[in-house]
């Protein structure tokens, strides 16, 4: 570090008292290796020269540096992401012929992918923001690169939503002419859904600045466990080849995202403060509520929806199921979502984090009453 430069201070973006960050430790080692902190051991001439350089106000993407374990699990997963690329344009889209489906079936599939897009279509901007944040906070290089690879994958997932919806219905799921009452209700559901999505985006954007990376990653992990579970379940049940193939490809990416989160948390979790742990418990509950919209059914806590929302939603899912999309039935969803939450429970409890109660799927745990639904962090 250059003399006189203001040090990056984690407490300015988090209220907790923290250990030195990985970057701070790395810097201290570098300074020690090259002649001592603050330039001791350097000639006065050199010290005067270095003292001239203006400080860089943090958070900032500068100065450029690359610290972190470049051989570790996260770095390896980043390498794997480069090898496992696939192109959504190469899927056999000509086999997804709108003429093969009834209009209600097309409506159901379009509806389901519009719901999915609330989570998967938001992936690119959500992860791009997280990536920029990780550069500004000088997180380890493999973590920053992992965020980039996830952003890259999410663009593909968004493209699958885009292609399916456009092919079967319209490129603008909130702007089309309904021909009957059911279509009007479906359109209204999608509009309500994206209104809620906009609340998520605002909350997420604020939360990113507010919470330490380890809390953020625990929410990211929730989202990735949810995504992996969803796509694997559906890929097994889908009968249409285009749906089955795209769900498989997306599911493979999501499993890698989940592995990235778990590998990152292995580094971050052992250093958690008690305050962070209780924050994580609350965020896990928030994540469950948010993600239940696609994995199961939306609890009231966060979701602002009109009274008929759920009955229309169920009807749309039934239509999509008939079209061969592989949407699980409510019973299967509940069981699969419950098993996924048990996986997360096992991970966090290993580090002394209490798991929140999820009575919706029959999981007992810490009663969380004060969830701030302005701070929703999970991602897909
Ligand atoms: Fe995704
Ligand atoms: Fe993901």
Structural account:
The structure is a single chain. With 380 residues, the chain is mostly helical. It starts with 21 loop residues before the first helix and ends in a 30-residue tail after the last helix. The N terminus is likely disordered. The chain is built from twelve helices and no strands. The longest helix has 30 residues. Helices cover 61% and strands 0% of the residues. It has a single domain, classed as Ribonucleotide Reductase, subunit A. Bound molecules: fe (ii) ion (2 copies). One fe (ii) ion binds next to helix 6.
Rg, Cα atoms, Å: 23 Å
CATH homologous superfamily?
Ribonucleotide Reductase, subunit A
N-to-C CA distance: 37 Å
- Estimated helix fraction: 55-70%
The CATH class, by name, is Mainly Alpha
Main sheet makeup: none
Number of strands: 0
CATH topology: Ribonucleotide Reductase, subunit A
How many separate helices?
A: 12
Rounded average pLDDT: 90
Query: What is the H/E order?
Result: HHHHHHHHHHHH
Number of domains: 1
Instruction: Note poorly predicted spans.
Output: 1-17
Structural class: mainly alpha
Instruction: Assign an overall shape.
Output: globular
